[in-house]
Recover the amino acids of this structure.
């Protein structure tokens, strides 16, 4: 290694773990990410600390839990005193850049003037595009000037258009691949890598792709691949004997994601609807893979691959109709909180699959250790370096996830506060302030179809998991400020 390693940090949005060939999906075409996994370490069970964007991103970018960062909800602004990984790296001489979304502060046009509020985040190259579509700006013109992707489109004489796919209310035809926001993100990363090749300083670039977040709108040519085999695509995981409404919130979202605003009421959708949405989602993942391939090729062409840590991950999952729910919200099924996580580069063993559970909050301390930088005192995650040595072990015996009224869609009387803990064998979800929750025996019921919350024969299991949950919640207490003396 010539000097401190570079970092190419690729983070997609709302991509569940089972969307890649290397995670066992036989439908998708993801040869580039599969190749990255073969060249590095794949974590089979990586868990987000929130099933929603902003809390999750604040957590893995600081190495602190959502409650600790005080960034518990979409639409909140991260406090200015939080230390992002990009700031820590910049303080150590890294050149840091970003393309795509950041989403650590409010991004709704009614709250943000033109671009999301930034703290001292350390990014010197900041190509912001929270989402591809231009948003109407309250009391002002459209915010296309702040959405750099939109500016890029206009320079090419194109307008952002995603018409409905013929015969579908749930899928749209996305921009052509060469004009897609995913492609724009990759091009910004490639330009940054080329500009920094051969310089004395290390760099970190965040490629924050919006896809495969809804709306489900892949380029037509990517969706076309799936249409001839649409009937082969499996329907969502819904057991007819499984009650659709395990909790009040899940019942609301079964009737229509985001309180019906997004139009994904499960029972109103046909089998073809369900399969077409899944095909579109996978097609978006295929486009991501092609652009990952371009970025990896750029590393090779500029001679930087040997000294660059490459991360591929997502901030949280997507329900895709499983358990009768679409999109995201206050649920902690594997589909919502388990994500892909692949790392390759110097100091990372190749061809290894880690079966132990890990948390995304562990990423920040891991990267600092790999870069030879002292751990920040406020960090709560554990370094994954012991899991990157080729042993295939080194994770956790339980993982923890939080949802503190993180989305605004539910009626005032609901506004859920919920937490999850899972072990190898069991998963507990508690809806705080309500006599509701979920308990799953994951050995007997890996698809989480049979809620044992009210089963009198599982009281001891429930109590043991409650104790684990209490311990995990206790350890989210902020380690800052540090103790200065004995008294």
């Amino acid at each position: 290694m010539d000097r401190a390693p570079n970092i190419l940090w690729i983070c997609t949005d709302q991509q569940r773990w089972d969307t890649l060939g290397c995670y066992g999906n036989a439908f998708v075409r993801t040869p580039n990410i599969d190749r990255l996994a073969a060249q590095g370490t794949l974590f089979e069970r990586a868990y987000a600390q929130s099933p929603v964007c902003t809390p999750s991103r604040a957590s893995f970018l600081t190495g602190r839990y959502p409650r600790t960062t005080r960034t518990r909800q979409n639409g909140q602004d991260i406090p200015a005193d939080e230390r992002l990984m990009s700031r820590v790296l910049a303080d150590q001489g890294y050149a840091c850049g970003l393309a795509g979304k950041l989403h650590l502060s409010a991004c709704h046009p009614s709250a943000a003037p033109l671009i999301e509020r930034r703290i001292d985040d350390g990014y010197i190259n900041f190509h912001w595009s929270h989402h591809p579509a231009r948003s109407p700006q309250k009391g002002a013109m459209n915010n296309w000037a702040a959405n750099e992707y939109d500016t890029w489109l206009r320079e090419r004489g194109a307008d952002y258009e995603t018409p409905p796919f013929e015969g579908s209310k749930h899928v749209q035809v996305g921009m052509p691949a060469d004009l897609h926001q995913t492609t724009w993100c990759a091009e910004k990363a490639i330009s940054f890598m080329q500009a920094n090749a051969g310089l004395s300083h290390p760099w970190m670039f965040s490629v924050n792709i919006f896809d495969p977040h809804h709306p489900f709108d892949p380029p037509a040519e990517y969706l076309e691949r799936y249409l001839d085999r649409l009937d082969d695509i499996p329907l969502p995981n819904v057991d007819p004997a499984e009650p659709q409404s395990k909790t009040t919130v899940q019942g609301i979202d079964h009737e229509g994601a985001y309180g019906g605003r997004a139009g994904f009421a499960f029972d109103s959708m046909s089998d073809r609807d369900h399969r077409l949405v899944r095909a579109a989602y996978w097609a978006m993942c295929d486009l991501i893979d092609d652009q990952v391939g371009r970025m990896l090729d750029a590393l090779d062409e500029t001679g930087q691959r040997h000294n660059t840590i490459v991360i591929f991950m997502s901030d949280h999952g997507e329900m895709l109709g499983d358990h009768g729910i679409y999109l995201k919200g206050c649920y902690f099924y594997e589909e919502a909180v388990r994500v892909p996580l692949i790392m390759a580069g110097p100091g990372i063993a190749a061809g290894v699959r880690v079966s132990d559970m890990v948390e995304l909050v562990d990423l920040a301390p891991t990267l600092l250790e790999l870069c030879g930088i002292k751990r920040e005192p406020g960090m709560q995650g554990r370094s994954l370096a012991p899991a990157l040595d080729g042993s295939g072990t080194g994770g956790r015996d339980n993982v923890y996830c939080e949802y503190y009224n993180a989305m605004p869609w539910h009626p005032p009387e609901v506004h859920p506060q919920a937490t999850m803990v899972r072990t190898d064998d069991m998963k507990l979800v508690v809806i705080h302030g309500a006599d509701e929750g979920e308990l799953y025996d994951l050995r007997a019921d890996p698809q989480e179809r049979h809620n044992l919350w009210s089963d009198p024969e599982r009281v001891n299991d429930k109590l043991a998991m409650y104790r684990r949950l209490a311990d995990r919640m206790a350890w989210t207490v902020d380690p800052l400020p540090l103790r200065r003396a004995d008294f």
About this structure: Residues 6-396 form a domain with the Alkaline Phosphatase, subunit A fold (CATH 3.40.720.10). The first strand starts at residue 6 and ends at 12.
